[in-house]
Write a structure and sequence with these properties.
Its EC number is 2.6.1.9. 37% of the residues lie in helices and 15% in strands. It has helices at 25-32, 56-59, 70-77, 98-105, 119-129, 141-153, 169-176, 194-204, 224-231, 268-271, 286-295, 303-313, 316-338, 363-372, 396-408, and strands spanning 4-5, 16-17, 85-86, 136-139, 159-162, 180-183, 208-212, 236-240, 262-267, 280-283, 343-345, 352-357, 375-376, 378-381, 386-392. The strands form 4 sheets. Strands 4-10-9-8-7-5-6 form a 7-stranded mixed sheet, with helices on both faces. It binds pyridoxal-5'-phosphate. The site of pyridoxal-5'-phosphate has 13 residues, from α6.
Length: 410
Amino acid sequence: MGVIRIAASPSPSIATIHHGFRSSKRNSGRFMAASLPTEQVDGTRNRVTGDSFIRLHLKKLSPYQPILPFEVLSTRLGRKPEDIIKLDANENPYGPPPEVLDALGALRFPYVYPDPQSRRLRAALAEDSGLDSDYILAGCGADELIDLIMRCVLDPGDKIVDCPPTFTMYEFDAAVNGALVIKVPRLSDFTLDIPRIVEVVEQEKPKCIFLTSPNNPDGSIINDEALLEILNLPILVVLDEAYIEFSGMKSRMDWVKKHENLIVLRTFSKRAGLAGLRVGYGAFPLSIIEYLWRAKQPYNVSVAAEVAACAALQNPGYLERVKNSLVQERQRLYNLLKGVPFLKPYPSYSNFILCEVTSGKDAKKLKEDLAQMGVMIRHYNNKELKGYVRVSVGKPEHTDALMECLNLLQ
Ligand SMILES: Cc1ncc(COP(=O)(O)O)c(C=O)c1O
């Protein structure tokens, strides 16, 4: 079953194709173009393997390292999910406002496809942001929009600028889309190396740059002056504001009206505790958004996701209270981490704190020891960040539990 035979020597007339295709001179010529491992006509077996169909550049792709699902983690650690303190993925431990669960429970038409234009959600976002809904497009998380932008902008071989350490999805999606990544590492205080970015844009002519404010994993922000300098360059700037609510800064969503080369991304995952329902959104110049509409999957935001996001926006008081609790807890957590002899925490504008692991302690071992005690944190061991951990800000009781465990490890 399913064997494609192609002559070893390029003679279209002797190619036979099973699979219900009739062998003919016309179609065999088409299949000749493919260099598939095949069964030879002389009887030598050279079977087609599935990976021969995969695009070459994807064969070199390392898979994205996602966090373990809660249930898997629970089995592995031998603890109930509710007994695990999850400070490894910058989720919002307060979850969404109660209106969300009510709205999800009252879903009336889950069997009907969702609105491809997410009209209700975009209208609510327009009210929330003050930017007209024509500039707004929603997606299955900000993650989907990062990929969608790349699919619309990048030809294979095009270049993007990435400023590590940062969110690794930019690099990952660039690889999936066959683009090249030019890395301009951040300076030691995690600010952007603007002179180097300017140089690279002039020399390498990259198509776009991904900037994150606050940046994941260090929590630093990009000031107006730096952003404007980069916006003046001939490059598309994608500003990822996934954590902007925790920074005390105003979103730059409305800047897209003035800057034809700016896209601003945001999400409900952090601000509204909806990471599991996957809703993100972006503000785009009108000259760009038109093409994203054409290229996106028609039903990218599910009925449940749209209903949940709209319900969350109906309770801005809750979102504000939760944000204030997390910002307050960030300060308490930072002060406590500063007192741990083997950690050097960095000040953060986000809902996580990056710490250098010092005094000869091993960051990976620290993460593993904490996991055994039921506290999950993230550790880094790459070129830009060796021997660092990142701790998400949780509820006060999460901080207390973490500190108890850290004290045991001293
Ligand atoms: C900087 C940044 N952007 C985007 C995302 C993903 O957002 P979403 O959950 O909406 O896909 C994350 C998730 O951690 C992130 O850290």
